[in-house]
Amino acid sequence: MNVNHGHGAPHIGTLPRGATGTIADVGGVRVGHCTLDAGSVQTGVSVLLPHAGDLFREKVPAAAAVINGFGKSIGLMQLEELGVLETPIALTNTFGVGVLAQAQIRAAVAANPTIGRALPTVNPLVFECNDGYLNDIQAFSITEAHYRAACEAASVDFASGSVGAGRGMSSFDLKGGIGTASRVVQAALAPYTVGALVLANFGRLPMLTIDGAPVGRTLAARAASSRAAQEPEKGSIIMLIAVDAPLDARQLRRVATRAAAGLARTGSVYGHGSGDIALAFSTAYTLAHDAPVHALPPLLADSQLDPLFQAAADCVEQAILDALWSASSVTGRDGHARLALREAAPDLADLLAGGARP
């Protein structure tokens, strides 16, 4: 596919990006999409697979940070208690959560037929954002087949923007969607990669800040009417962070919390109606389901985590920009439309160069 993610977006921070600039720079991680684009149906499914094996049998350490809990996710309670992933991570619209959880359970049972009998039940993990402005969410268009299609499409080479779960999403009153980024750091004298994948569906136009420049204020000042931009924030963002550093669930929760720093730099204030959730996981080791003892690799000391914190914040900010830069304009339900940032601001490069102050 050779996708050029976020072409033209400013590079956030001083840390170098990975080879592709995506979350797939963290070894083993793959992402897949299934996109529904049919008139009033503008939605889809995206999945992230931390490794190619059976996640129920070989679990991955993980933790989440709920920055603002206006959301309808499935699986967070057990994730918080046990600190592991045991299914792929699924993203979709709010009304598709239950269907995808069922699909994840079916897939896990197909691979492990005694789940729920001789084996414990499986913990599905589904995150959502409300795409109801562009998508007829009441059509209940998402099916289990869409989850399977997204899993089958999973690859290290994947698209961002108006694809998969991001098809109907809006950000800053513009077209949002899927975004991704990566950074390479040194911690405890060793190189590590941090990657992020976001489902961006948040923000009002005047808030939009790009690499410190208040671009949104300029764009809002140009608009014939700022009424829409004055409405309360009703969106959400899901931020997934992958690291190849050996961390436990407690440390991963600390990494996940730093996603809020990157989110805030883009102008978000985590509004009342915004569900802002971050999840971090490590690919450095797995935890066998039936092992009586887990032999963990040496973990990084907490005092060595600062480079990972910086990378997590920078990756999330960069991934949000990737979603905005990569998105294409979409028209959906009842003629509602969201313009891509590049279409709404054809002089964006000049605005950024000039600091974008109205």
UniProtKB/TrEMBL annotation:
<comment type="similarity">
    <text>Belongs to the peptidase S58 family.</text>
</comment>
<dbReference type="Pfam" id="PF03576">
    <property type="entry name" value="Peptidase_S58"/>
</dbReference>
<dbReference type="InterPro" id="IPR005321">
    <property type="entry name" value="Peptidase_S58_DmpA"/>
</dbReference>
<dbReference type="InterPro" id="IPR016117">
    <property type="entry name" value="ArgJ-like_dom_sf"/>
</dbReference>
<protein>
    <submittedName>
        <fullName>D-aminopeptidase</fullName>
    </submittedName>
</protein>
